[in-house]
């Protein structure tokens, strides 16, 4: 049975698509057959981050509406053997994602895949609710600021009341907090909430902390999931998060401001 | 013929006894603008609570002239704010006839009070003597109802309502969440959202929490917002209660 993981946040621009790309790549890199679905109808950009935008012929909505088969629409990743992308439509109305349609596609994918990662659109409306409805687990992407934390809290409420698992009285959706764009310097200066603050407010287990990093922007611009930047702090933080998602114990890193280099320590005293 | 072997399931419907707790609006007089303004103010305190609720208009304390009792206008204003007037309670014969013409159901006056001719003199006496044992909470049920118990965090955008008794929450109430109860509210965690106790008018209701960080606390309609709450007991374990219509905060360890 495939595991369905939604990457969601409420607030926009916090790093859901960046996270979906890296987590799915990380799972696939470990040999799990993984598909990542872009639920952001009208605003697709997962295919850009995955560098496959020029290979999109059919999309998620085409499959839902029976205009294409899954095999026609799935794009095989060029870097990681067992990774597939199901892109979003750029042209369709959001309402094209019907609950039955989404269910049918997920069921068909579940027959052959180990992991289905759903990249949710921002907001708490239809698209976001479709993306989370069938989830078994949720990665709640949060930035260390009050408005983002508030929206994450709201999404957690929806996961608890409007997901398939809640409606059918099954075990609740397993929740993970992923704190992204974390900048320890700004936390020290009191300009951002700390990991502890966010954990305290949201009261769900911490999957990882991804530092704010220029490398993330560079990687996205090159169409490269940042987890493949093995030497970068953000890449390693995502790799740690994948490990924890699979149940491994890993110590949290990159939580404190970078140590001053040898020379700056010498000269600044 | 269906009559011959009519089974239970072939019946179109069955009548069942139902016991619901309703919110009553105790009308003192009716003037369109004043009414709408007051209503708006109440809704502002608890937007989630008023959305689509059924409402009973209680005429037991009505003092205005019967001629001004325009139920059509009253219903219209309520409907504009998504409140559904379903019935009147009490009132004299003329008032009840007006209500009936506006398609409202008629409920008997509250039992505790003998229906009396509404003589202004008598009203005045009653108001001057608040020592009467019955402060007449508008719709507090006769028997204490079982408390509602919540073990999950109440998240932003969520609302939890105990329409008849106490509400006990063994988790945080987050900013943007709203908890309401006819009776007391106990939060064994931080109270960061809005808490409204005694929503039917029970002024003895209290709110208890482990850490007061609330956006608003209201007891029987008397409320304080975050700004005012920060003056005392902020981020501490406290209880809140009404003393002479004033919301008072006291630390729990005292
Ligand atoms: N850890 C990070 N450090 C620096 N920049 C980041 C980080 N994570 C994401 N970003 C940048 O933030 C922007 C938004 O990221 P992304 O598109 O992943 O967010 P999103 O939540 O999917 O947005 P939307 O709600 O619009 O779908 C992008 O420019 C991305 O490169
Ligand atoms: Mg996105």
Structural class of chain B, please?
A: alpha/beta
Radius of gyration of chain A: 18 Å
Structural class of chain A: alpha/beta
Question: Helical region count of chain A?
Answer: 13
Q: Into which percentage range does the β-strand content of chain A fall?
A: 15-25%
Q: Which descriptor suits the 3D outline of chain B? A: globular
Give the helix tally of chain B. 6
Tell me the helix content of chain B.
10-25%
List the topology elements.
The complex is a heterodimer of chains A (269) and B (254).
Chain A: E1 3-8, H1 16-29, E2 34-38, H2 46-49, H3 60-64, H4 70-73, E3 75-76, E4 83-86, H5 99-110, E5 115-119, H6 126-133, E6 137-142, H7 146-162, H8 164-167, E7 174-182, H9 184-188, H10 195-202, E8 206-211, H11 214-221, H12 233-245, H13 262-268
Parallel strand pairs in A: 1-5, 1-6, 2-4, 2-5, 6-7, 7-8
Antiparallel strand pairs in A: 3-4
Helix pairs in contact in A: 1-12
Chain B: E1 23-26, H1 32-45, H2 47-50, E2 54-58, H3 71-80, E3 84-89, H4 93-101, E4 105-107, H5 120-128, E5 148-150, E6 159-162, E7 167-169, E8 178-181, E9 185-191, E10 194-197, E11 207-212, E12 216-219, E13 222-225, H6 226-229, E14 238-243, E15 246-251
Parallel strand pairs in B: 1-2, 2-3, 3-4, 5-7, 6-8, 7-9, 8-10, 9-11, 10-12
Antiparallel strand pairs in B: 11-14, 12-13, 14-15
Helix pairs in contact in B: 1-3
Notes on the protein architecture:
- The complex is a heterodimer of chains A (269) and B (254).
- The longest helix of chain A is centred in the middle third of the chain and has 17 residues, at 146-162.
- In chain A, strands 3-4-2-5-1-6-7-8 form an eight-stranded mixed sheet, with helices on both faces.
- The mean pLDDT of chain A is 92.
- Chain A is an alpha/beta fold.
- Chain A is built from 13 helices and eight strands.
- Chain B has 254 residues and is of the alpha/beta class.
- Chain B has two domains: 19-107, Alpha-Beta Plaits; 148-251, Pectate Lyase C-like, CATH 2.160.20.
- In chain B, 20% of the residues lie in helices and 27% in strands.
- Chain B contains six helices and 15 strands.
- Chain B has helices at 32-45, 47-50, 71-80, 93-101, 120-128, 226-229; strands at residues 23-26, 54-58, 84-89, 105-107, 148-150, 159-162, 167-169, 178-181, 185-191, 194-197, 207-212, 216-219, 222-225, 238-243, 246-251.
- In chain B, the strands form three sheets. Chain B has a six-stranded mixed sheet with strand order 5-7-9-11-14-15, with no helix packed on it. Chain B has a five-stranded mixed sheet with strand order 6-8-10-12-13.
- In chain B, helix 1 (32-45) packs parallel to helix 3.
- Chains A and B meet through helix 7 of A and loops of B.
- The site of magnesium ion has 4 residues of chain A, from helix 1.
């Amino acid at each position: 049975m495939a595991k369905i993981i939604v990457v969601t946040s409420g607030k926009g621009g916090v790093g859901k698509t960046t996270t979906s790309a890296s987590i799915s790549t990380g799972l696939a890199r470990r040999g799990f057959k993984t598909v990542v679905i872009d639920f952001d109808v009208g605003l697709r950009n997962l295919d850009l981050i995955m560098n496959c935008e020029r290979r999109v012929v059919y999309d998620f909505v085409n499959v839902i509406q029976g205009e294409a088969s899954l095999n026609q629409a799935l794009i095989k990743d060029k870097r990681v053997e067992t990774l597939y992308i199901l892109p979003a439509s750029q042209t369709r109305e959001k309402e094209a994602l019907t609950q039955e349609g989404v269910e049918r596609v997920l069921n068909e994918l579940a027959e052959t895949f180990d992991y289905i990662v759903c990249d949710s659109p921002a907001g708490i409306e239809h698209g976001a609710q479709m993306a989370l409805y069938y989830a078994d687990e949720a990665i709640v992407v949060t930035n260390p600021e009050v408005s983002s934390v508030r929206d994450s809290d709201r999404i957690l409420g929806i996961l608890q009341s409007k997901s398939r698992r809640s409606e059918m009285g099954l075990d609740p959706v397993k929740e993970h907090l992923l704190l992204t764009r974390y900048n320890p310097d700004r936390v020290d200066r009191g300009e951002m909430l700390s990991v502890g603050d966010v954990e305290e407010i949201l009261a769900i287990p911490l999957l990882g902390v991804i530092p704010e990093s220029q490398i993330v922007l560079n990687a996205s611009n090159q169409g490269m999931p940042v987890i493949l930047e093995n030497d970068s702090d953000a890449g390693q933080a995502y790799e740690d998060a994948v490990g924890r998602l699979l149940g491994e114990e890993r110590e949290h890193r990159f939580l404190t401001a970078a140590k001053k280099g040898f020379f700056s320590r010498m000269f600044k005293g | 013929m269906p009559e011959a072997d009519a089974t239970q399931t072939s019946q179109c419907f069955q009548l069942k006894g139902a016991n619901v707790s309703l919110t009553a609006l105790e009308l003192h007089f009716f003037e369109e603008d004043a009414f709408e303004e007051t209503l708006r103010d109440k809704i502002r305190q608890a937007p989630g609570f008023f959305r689509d609720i059924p409402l009973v208009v209680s005429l037991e304390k009505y003092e205005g002239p019967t001629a001004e009792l325009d139920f059509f206008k009253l219903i219209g204003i309520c409907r504009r704010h998504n409140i559904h007037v379903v019935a009147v309670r009490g009132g004299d014969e003329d008032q009840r006839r007006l209500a009936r013409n506006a398609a409202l159901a008629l409920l008997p006056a509250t039992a505790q009070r003998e229906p009396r001719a509404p003589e202004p003199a008598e009203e005045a006496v009653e108001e001057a003597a608040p020592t009467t044992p019955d402060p007449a909470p508008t719709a507090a049920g006769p028997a204490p109802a079982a408390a509602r118990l919540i073990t999950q965090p109440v998240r932003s955008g969520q609302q939890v309502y105990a329409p008849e008794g106490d509400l006990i929450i063994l988790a945080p109430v987050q900013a943007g969440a709203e908890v309401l109860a006819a009776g007391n509210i106990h939060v064994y965690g931080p109270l960061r959202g809005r808490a409204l106790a005694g929503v039917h008018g029970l002024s003895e209701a209290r709110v208890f929490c482990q850490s007061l960080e609330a956006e608003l606390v209201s007891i029987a309609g008397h409320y304080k917002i975050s700004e005012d709450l920060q003056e005392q007991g902020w981020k501490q374990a406290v209880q809140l209660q009404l003393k002479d219509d004033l919301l008072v905060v006291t630390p729990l360890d005292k």
